[in-house]
Specification:
The chain is of the alpha+beta class. The chain folds into 3 domains: about 1-75; about 75-105 and about 130-235, SH3 type barrels (Roll), CATH 2.30.30; about 240-310, no CATH class. The chain is about 30% helix and about 25% strand.
Length: about 325
């Protein structure tokens, strides 16, 4: 038998107890002080106002596992917020914007068999090694019904040759958000696109460190959005992307040729106008001259017409 006790790290109060009997293994949080922060969601009778808790420490003695927790403020998920607003989540997250959100993927669990603690490699009800985990920023590609397609971000950038399925996000995309999002360089993980429940999606923190449900306010800047769209097309639809690029280049060339023809046409029209004006000026001058010297203007014009007709024949 194993006993799991949850305690309030701030005052030592016992929050809840889980007793496991006739079970060879139980799951406990994969918490190690040197790793990233670990959280869990539980609602305890003595603390009904808190559902999010940060794991501050785990102590194991014999078959007793003591988990020390700190209460955390948590905003409503997108699913809960949309229901309260009597809206569909897809009206809050729009595909054309590529909005930024936080997604709670969950945390990996360790296995405790009453004697030893080891990595979970069998229980698929929890996250498995290698899967995206913890709460992290994401870019939303699409939202439909109670699910959304997101691209996770990571600050584990690494060094060396750029990865073909990673894209750096500029600081402009985090404008108006907490400085913690720009403390390290962030990259979009195109190889880890996920479909998640809207109940895993939460708003980002603003400059004041508060959560804002104004999801439309935080999105990729125009330059990052265009770069992401090109990278997605080049990665997952390369043939179509190449054909589109060639078509755009051809269209650009045709537009340039059209402009050249239009300029030539306008130049010819201007030349015709100039010649017409010159011809009229010469004709008026000639008629005045003929009138001055007493020639029969009508007869002269008749002779000109006759000569012109002969030239035409």
């Amino acid at each position: 038998m194993a006993r799991i006790e949850y305690k309030n790290n701030e005052n030592g109060e016992l929050l809840g107890v889980v007793t496991c009997s006739d079970m060879s293994e139980v799951l406990i949080p994969d918490f190690k002080p040197e790793k990233h922060d670990v959280f869990l969601r539980n609602t305890f009778v003595s603390e009904p106002d808190f559902c999010l808790w940060q794991v501050m420490g785990i102590e194991i003695e014999d078959r007793l596992v003591e988990i020390n927790l700190n209460p955390m403020i948590s905003p409503d998920s997108l699913g809960v917020f949309a229901r309260k607003q009597k809206k569909r989540p897809s009206t809050i997250l729009t595909s054309r914007e590529i909005q930024l959100v936080e997604v709670e993927f969950g945390f990996q669990q360790d296995v405790f068999d009453g004697d030893n603690r080891k990595r979970n490699e069998k229980s698929s009800i929890a996250l498995m090694p290698g899967e995206i985990h913890k709460k992290r920023p994401c870019a939303v590609l699409h939202c439909e019904d109670e699910k959304a397609q997101v691209i996770p971000l990571t600050t584990s950038v690494g060094t060396g040759k750029p990865h073909p399925k990673k894209m750096s996000v500029s600081e402009d995309s985090f404008s108006g958000l907490s400085n913690r999002y720009i403390a390290k360089e962030s990259q979009l993980l195109l190889s880890m696109i996920q479909t998640v429940s809207v109940y895993r999606i939460f708003p980002m923190k603003n400059k004041q460190g508060k959560y804002s449900n104004d999801y439309s306010k935080h999105k990729l800047c125009r330059e990052d959005k265009v770069a992401l769209q090109k990278l997605l097309a080049n990665t997952y639809a390369k043939k179509t992307f190449d054909e589109l690029t060639n078509s755009n280049n051809l269209l650009h060339g045709l537009k340039q040729e059209k402009m050249k023809i239009l300029r030539t046409s306008q130049d010819l029209k201007n030349t015709v106008v100039d010649l017409t004006e010159m011809n009229q000026t010469y004709r008026d001058t000639l008629l005045k001259l003929l009138t001055f010297i007493g020639e029969d203007v009508a007869k002269y014009e008749e002779n000109l017409i006759e000569k012109a007709n002969k030239l035409i024949e």
